[in-house]
Amino acid sequence: xxxLTNKELGRKSITDFKRAExxxxxxxxxxxxxxxxxxxxxxxxxxxLLEGIYLCGISARPPHRDIQKTALGATETVSWEYFDExxxxxxxxxxxxxEILAIEQTEDSMALHDFIxxxxxxxxxxxxxxxxxxxxxxxxxxxxxxxxxxIGTKHSLNISVSVGITIWDLYGKLIKQNL
Length: 179
Fold this sequence. Notes:
The protein is an alpha/beta fold and 179 residues long. It contains seven helices and seven strands; from the N terminus they run ααβαβαβαβββαβα. The longest helix is centred in the last third of the chain and has 18 residues.
């Protein structure tokens, strides 16, 4: 077994990435404080050709060296917008017919593995503050909530891990449907 070189991986150029059809998903970061987490979200969004990221509230914006440290250039490929309030970003996406889903533990949340995305539907996924999660005000504007089931002693995962798990799950389900 031999590790593949970067050239053998056949990755897209920045131009090819910009032109490529995107997975119909936008990530909304609701007051995420860690610049490393934000950079990781950019990198995951690049890896799965997501439509973009909405950075909201206290969430930092590129260019910033601590975002770049984990993004590894993904801030050059992934489209992003900033909103001083998360609700403003959600309102814009709702006007574009996105279904807004918070990734949060709520009374009526659906387990991620039970959620089946609809073919040709657009989704916006809201991830929240590292300690406080998605704010209740934002949850009130969402169409639903998805939860990553956990069985250990901790009640949450790091946001970058949650984004990775959620996107990988939805990517697999959408690919099976041929988008």
